Amino acid sequence: MAAKNPLGQIRKNLECHVGREIRLRANRGRRKTLEKIGVLESTYPSIFVVRIEEENYNQRLSFSYADVLTETVQLSFLDAEDREMPLFAVK
């Protein structure tokens, strides 16, 4: 049975991982891909925020749940052994 509200499901899945380290891959168009490791900082009704901390550089990126649904943004979290675990299974 398909989810009646896929954006709500994505938000619910992300809420369980707030505060965890995640790997972010975002398609920025025209062969530009952003790949970063950050912390899922917070979720809001329409967006979620990822905090990127690099040496001498801090950044907060926000994305919509629709970006995840359309696979413009791909998220996976890192476990204790730095193995990548996908947040969402592709069906």
Short account of what is shown:
This protein has helices spanning 6-15, 65-69; strands at 21-27, 33-43, 47-54, 57-64, 73-78, 84-86. By secondary structure, it is an alpha+beta fold. It has a 6-stranded antiparallel beta sheet.
Structure description:
Helices cover 16% and strands 47% of the residues. The radius of gyration is 13 Å and the shape is globular. The mean pLDDT is 85. Strands 4-3-2-1-5-6 form a six-stranded antiparallel beta sheet. The protein has a single domain (6-80), classed as SH3 type barrels (Roll). A hairpin with a 5-residue loop joins strand 1 (21-27) and strand 2 (33-43). It has two helices and six strands. By secondary structure, the chain is of the alpha+beta class. The longest helix has 10 residues, at 6-15. The two termini are 12 Å apart.
Features:
six-stranded antiparallel β-sheet, single chain, globular, alpha+beta, 2 helices
Q: What gross morphology would you assign?
A: globular
Mean pLDDT: 85
How far apart, in Å, are the first and last alpha carbons?
Answer: 12 Å
Helix/strand order:
HEEEEHEE
The profile of the biggest β sheet is: 6 strands, antiparallel
Any idea how many domains?
1
Question: How many β strands by DSSP?
Answer: 6
What is the strand content? Answer: over 45%
Q: Which blocks of ≥5 consecutive residues have pLDDT under 50?
A: none
Topology, please?
Elements: H1 6-15, E1 21-27, E2 33-43, E3 47-54, E4 57-64, H2 65-69, E5 73-78, E6 84-86
